[in-house]
Write a structure and sequence with these properties.
heterodimer, A: globular, disordered N terminus, B: mainly alpha, globular
Chain lengths: ~325, ~300
């Protein structure tokens, strides 16, 4: 929400400066550098997770009967030996080389576990986003253009209800109706490979949409309303710009910019519900991995998946911001 | 997360530009009138308040007058809703009606704690940070706040529950740990604005101690903002608490709790829908009620009633 800038602020002029400094001052680059810093601090938080535990996580895992030798061995495996800065340094070096440790339960590399699970989650996000945009865009346009006040009121009441209802309630109702009553979707499971996986993904994505569509369409709606107040929209009509061009270039494109920039933030929120949706529909994504790892006290996998969740949000936020900037140069990046 | 973009519902003032002419649809149908009535009740926070009151009263009255023990088998298993068991019975023969309303106290109580701790911590930290003159401190704490906010809330909470151990206490601690950062961000921004106001400068000039300025002049302004956010955050928190129990990471059976009841009912979805639907409706009811109050509160604060 912080990046919307309504006023007529333009990009800093780089006229007489040399090409290099102009490039360095580019807001795009600054935004990228900022993303790297956030990613680094996300790694610090993920790293601190295991060290915040009261007492000794390894002791808790192995029980009181464990021998000193075994405890030392597990500490070694989890990277819990040496001073904290040393631990962080080796953790950081490992992570940058694609080494997030080994699961102490299954003996698998954490990176492999994530590499198997991540495509499922990304597919779920992609399908959800596609569906959410396909619904939100016409919905927000209709609400913004509608001249009946009760349409807007009804819309706000319904979105409030949708947002305040737990995603697992929607999920269970969807399973009850679509899978059990109508029999048009599998109850659970997954099969990799496009387009076969869509059969398993459409219902979970639809459930996710119950959370995403209200937020997305509200942002889009308020953005459309404020664009309508801009002078260039009126100017477009006065100048006799063809209706279709006026609609896309004058009304929709500037309205989309702040929305796209916010989608990154919203995907972060959606990832939370995606964890529950994955579990409920038996999708083997990283949310499922995370929860299973918690049941098994598999700390290395917990740490790895939490990190990936954080990094996804950082990357998606960056892409959203850059895309919004491309759509409307007035959007402030930093 | 519930956005602060709530714009007054489109009254067509701006759209008039786009659509030349065309009278405003003043013919009011029954539906239109019905919606308008609901809208007014909602705006005044009366509807939401009444809904909250209803569930709170029920959560105390039902367990007190119910002939059934929420934890003990008191009837046939998986019996459909009837006069004896209004919401039916579950797979162990427990009365779902009694359990649903017994759970209300727990869910609402935990969610209140899950809002109160981060609200307090975040407001204090954010206000101090906004007034602090140390740039190093602002940078370090600011980075921590950004990093915590960068995570999907549920993923970080689940990670914390993993190290703290499964259970209700861990859930509350994890909520405090992750959510304070969002309050701190709001409080910091507000404190920075308030700190430059004339009345704060005046208090400084008069030589009042910093503590007094903080408590008497800055805090009231900052906390008004964070409390308003806390109200809409409550919806998210109660859904998160129930969600964690649904995943088996919060409240453990047999304690009645909406999320864990729904998780148990999930296995009997086809044969005994009442095990899932009634706790789910109770949870939605509470969430919607608070969302309505939060929306009314925001409107009132902005002054467009």
């Amino acid at each position: 929400m912080k990046k919307q800038e309504g006023g007529a602020q333009s990009a800093p002029p780089s006229g007489s400066r040399s090409a290099l400094t102009g490039w360095l001052r580019s807001p795009v680059l600054q935004r990228c550098v900022q993303a790297v810093f956030v990613a680094l601090s996300v790694m610090i938080v993920a790293f601190s997770l295991m060290r915040l535990a009261p007492g000794d996580p390894v002791r808790t895992l192995l029980g009181d009967a464990a021998t000193e030798e075994l405890v030392a061995q597990y500490n070694e495996k989890l990277g819990l030996t040496g001073s904290t800065p040393e631990q962080f340094w080796s953790y950081l070096r490992g992570a940058l080389h694609g080494d997030l440790g080994t699961s102490v339960i299954t003996g698998q590399e954490v990176v492999d576990v994530i590499a198997r699970a991540l495509p499922v989650t990304l597919w779920l996000i992609a399908v959800t986003l596609t569906m959410a945009i396909a619904v939100s865009l016409p919905l927000a346009l209709y609400i913004a253009v509608s001249r009946r006040p009760w349409v807007g009121h009804l819309y706000r009441i319904l979105t409030s209800i949708s947002l305040a209802t737990p995603v697992f309630f929607w999920g269970l109702m969807a399973i009850l109706f679509f899978s059990m009553y109508l029999g048009v979707a599998p109850v659970a499971g997954y099969e990799p490979g496009f387009p076969g996986n869509l059969e398993y993904l459409w219902l979970p994505a639809l459930v996710n949409c119950f959370v995403l569509v209200p937020v997305l369409s509200r942002v889009l709606h308020s953005s459309l309303v404020s664009t309508q107040d801009e002078e260039f929209v009126e100017t477009g009509i006065v100048r006799g710009v063809p209706r279709r061009k006026w609609f896309w270039r004058y009304l929709l494109r500037p309205s989309l910019a702040p929305t796209v920039a916010l989608v990154g933030y919203m995907i972060g929120q959606m990832m939370s519900s995606a964890v529950i949706v994955e579990i409920m529909f038996g999708l083997p994504g990283i949310g499922t991995q995370l929860v299973n790892a918690v049941y098994q006290r598999d700390y290395a996998v917990v740490q790895g998946t939490v990190l990936v969740f954080g990094l996804i949000v950082v990357v998606v936020g960056l892409v959203g911001d850059l895309l919004g900037r491309w759509l409307d140069r007035r959007v402030d990046l930093v | 997360m519930t956005d602060d973009v709530s714009v007054a519902p489109s009254d067509g003032s701006a759209v008039a530009v786009a659509a030349a002419g065309g009278g405003r649809g003043e013919r009011r149908s029954g539906l239109s009138r019905g919606v308008a009535t609901w809208w007014r009740a909602l705006r005044g926070m009366r509807l939401g308040g009444a809904m909250i009151l209803a569930i709170l009263v029920a959560s105390f009255v039902v367990p007190a007058v119910s002939p059934y023990d929420p934890l003990a088998a008191t009837g046939p298993t998986l019996a459909a809703p009837s006069a004896d068991h209004l919401f039916g019975t579950d797979n162990l023969g427990r009365d779902v009606f009694t359990r649903t309303f017994t759970a209300a106290r727990l869910d609402i109580g935990v969610a209140l704690l899950g809002v109160a701790f981060p609200l307090f911590i975040g407001t204090v930290v954010g206000a101090l940070l906004g007034l602090s003159r140390s740039r190093a401190l602002a940078a370090v704490v600011g980075t921590i706040i950004d990093a915590i906010n960068a995570f999907p809330m549920l993923a970080l909470i689940i990670g914390l529950v993993a190290v703290l151990g499964i259970g209700l206490k861990s859930v509350i601690i994890a909520l405090a740990f992750t959510n304070w950062a969002r309050y701190a961000r709001i409080a910091r921004t507000r404190a920075m604005v308030v700190g430059k106001q004339d009345y704060v400068l005046a208090a400084k000039t008069l030589g009042y101690p910093r503590r007094r300025i903080l408590l008497r002049h800055v805090m009231p302004n900052v906390s008004a903002e964070t409390i308003a956010y806390g109200l809409s955050d409550f919806v998210l928190v109660i859904l998160t608490v129930a969600g964690l129990s649904f995943l088996g990471l919060g409240v453990r059976p047999p304690t009645p709790e909406w999320g864990s009841m729904m998780s148990e009912g999930r296995l009997f979805l086809q044969t005994a829908w009442w095990m899932t639907v009634f706790p789910g409706l109770a949870l939605s009811w509470t969430g919607v009620a608070v969302a309505f109050v939060a929306e009314g509160f925001r409107r009132r604060q902005r002054g467009d009633l």
